[in-house]
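Q: How would the structure tokens look for this protein?
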Amino acid sequence: MSRIKSVSFIGSGNVATHLAKALANSGINVKSIYSRNIVHAKLLGDLVGAKSTDKISEIAVDSDLFIFSINDSVIGDLAKKLKEKVGYDAFVAHTSGMVASEIFKEYFNDFGVFYPLQTFKKSRNIDINEVPFLIAGNSNTVENNLFELASMISDNVHFIDDAKRKVLHVAAVFANNFTNFMYSISDDIVQKENVDFQLLKPLIKETAMKIVDGQNPKEVQTGPAVRNDISTINAHLSYLENNATAKQLYQILTKSIVEANK
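A: Here is the predicted structure in token form.
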């Protein structure tokens, strides 16, 4: 069993909310929630029975683990402030996909990464048992404790070093964030013509399910670009003449697909 019996969160956003709830439901004592916005801290604190604070100095010093689930740019600053409160021997981890675990090196003796590879919104329930957790640490003991903690809430836990985690994070932006932005452009296009976006959902589902079912993305690529159907491509570009953003993206992606399939 993991030696981690209690945690405190630095952060109260989407990721912190899902992790705090999942850990609390698994029997971990969530002792405190810090956020610079006390209202947000209290909302999450009330959900998991934790103390809420907007002051690092008021965080529960006897927590077995402090999880930083905040904007990457402020991890270092808040790590320094936490160290002044809890000392060098505290055990810390962050949930960032891009920040190296070494960011904690000058402040703490035991540190690591507890990164869930998923998109989170507070308002949407997720089966966290399926979420991949990518674990790294500055010692075998740290890694094993974080692995065991993650295994309490997920069946999909992996040791991944900083370099490979960054690769996955970049890939995830293409697979998730950029894809979702494409959905929003599709929605804008049909809404302007008073066409129901719901008609596209079976297509969206089938496209995703091909990959979920294990097919290679490149091998299942369809559409006018992979066929090099110039007539259709030009017709689409003509339609998009008054939509500069969509037209530019269409041109870039079409060119990329054509070149990838030469």
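The beta strands are 6-10, 29-34, 51-53, 65-68, 91-94, 110-116, 133-137, 157-159.

The chain has a mean pLDDT of 95.

Upvote if useful.
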